[in-house]
Amino acid sequence: MTAIAPINPGTLQLAASFLRKGGLVAMPTETVYGLACDASNPDAVARLYAAKGRPQFNPLIAHVASFEMAQAEAVFSEAALALARNFWPGPLTLVLPVAQTGTVCDLARSGLDTIAIRMPAHPGARSLIAGFGRPVVAPSANRSGHISPTLADHVKADLDGKVDLILDGGPCTQGIESTIVSLVGDRPALLRAGAVETSVLESFLGEPLARAGEEDDISAPGQLKSHYAPNAHLRLNADAPEAGEAWLGFGPDTFGGTNLSPNGNLAEAAANLFAMLRKLDTDSDRIAVAHIPDEGLGEAINDRLARAAHRE
Ligand code: AMP
Ligand code: MG
User: Fold this and answer.
1) Can you give the residue range of the structural domain that contains 263?
2) Which of 42, 60, 290, 291 is the most buried (most CB within 10 A)?
């Protein structure tokens, strides 16, 4: 049995002591709950992969509590610094060359000479990392391939007994993973659509982001086609539910099912997405999902839905 604990000075200290011993602690972030361990400790990282049941050792995102911590791990170009100053703390992950002073172990980086790094906005996550004093890696705190957790209870449902402690920070406000931008190629490239809208980044940078697949040197290791997968069969872009299907709506409708956002608000839909998928998945084996516009946060929502619907 893994305990779920509210965040306070005592539980933060306990969590940091687990991290120091190579343990695993689930922590809230503004995106989804992360499964944190000492990024410099390969045994801890191996334990983390095992707990998640990851099919392969894809590289993980290092989470930091300060700019100083970030700059010890990664080499920041001017563009990288500008992005970090503007979007951190927050749900933007930067892929940068690894610094010589870096402490994040090879296993956590899959042996790459680059590092994915971000400073989370959730104060509980930053307090934990600051108290621990070093970066943690923190992939989503779910069994590999399952739906990402946006509540402490979701973590317990997937990882009970496999992690040392679950810190409860309430529901995740963004509900969808960070946007990943690589700054190691010729042009800034979008590796994963996420909680920071692509168009916001593009107008900040003053140029369009290259996309994975456009150029040979752009790769997003570990971006599996099938991911976030419920057991239920998903039918996307549906106009209406068919007999036997549970309905996941978006915008006003008269079907009376679950609705991501009756007002058609994409931020609300992102925050609700994973929790509603989990709920519908326990009640039904077929889910029809309404059309979600592919603009703004809709890009990240549609990316996650496509992976949730994909069958190998
Ligand atoms: P998550 O599962 O949310 O922790 O996201 C990890 C993702 O970050 C991986 O699936 C990769 O796509 C991406 N990533 C991490 N490190 C790197 C890197 N050095 N280069 C490119 N992508 C990376
Ligand atoms: Mg995940």
Assistant:
1) 233-309
2) 60
